[in-house]
Amino acid sequence: MSVVVDIKDVSKTYGSIRALDKVNISVEEGEMFGLIGPDGAGKSTLYRLLATLLVPDSGSLTMLGLDTVKDYRKLRSLIGYMPERFSLYPDLSISENLNFFASLFGVSTKDNYDLIAPIFSQLSRFPNRPAGKLSGGMKQKLALSCALIHRPPILLLDEPTTGVDAVSRSEFWDMLASLRKHGITILVSTSYMDEATRCDRIAMIDHGKILCTDTPERLVAGLDENLYNAVAPDMFRLLAGLRSMPEVIDCYTFGATLHVVGTNDFHSEEALAKLAGQGIDGADIYPAKGVIEDLFIKLTRNDQR
Ligand code: ADP
To answer: What residues does ligand 1 touch, defined as CB less than 6 Å away?
Structure first.
């Protein structure tokens, strides 16, 4: 496997804001690589640099051996870029948008139809509908089709599932998975931690810094926390009660439960007795299996305090 995206020591500031701080990432051919981080972490800035729309303050970004600053003209035809915000023309119909993007790259929509056919088949039911009148999920499918229209070897997708309903999100990831058989290297960013598991490898980013890079499985396996689920009829008092215990390192809402990170001195029976002493009855505490979100919280814990 060869490295097709190489980001070396990249920093970027906007005035006094350091959006990216010495970022290093390398992505291999055919990989689905996820950039995972909350709003403001620096994801879009990195995508704009890769899409040759911004220039780094320092460091370098190369794709397919071409430099994003020196070789930007050549690179633009080799990448498909789907920006975070809806980038299509809302007044143009689905087919007009596709034809427009195809003409920009000097191809016909028929040339690469095999690539977009599985995605386009869902859009072709209403070819004349203006893009602005599509649902969020459909808009993203059209944007993906437009980004693929020239069959780029590298696809840059900046938060493609933000604001999209859960079913469409899942469908979108299925589509990305199916694109891999065409050998396309995909860099996708998301703030939804659960989507990390759909990637071959991920990098977690926060405040412009890469926190870790590896397969999601290895990252979760390395999460060495003493982790528990906690529930009680009064979740608010449960949270306050657990947070007041010195043997609790951290306690946060996790779906319908709380996740509790304990020191080695944390024992669920003792914790339950302490909670009962505070009048918090009916609680249950049982071991939890850590996921990517727990890892992110762990890696950013010191920043939050
Ligand atoms: P993300 O995509 O992860 O939400 P961004 O790359 O958009 O992160 O933003 C990273 C940081 O840079 C944030 O603090 C954001 O407010 C700031 N930022 C982004 N674009 C600009 C800009 N054009 N001017 C000033 N600050 C910006």
So the answer is: 14, 17, 19, 37, 39-45
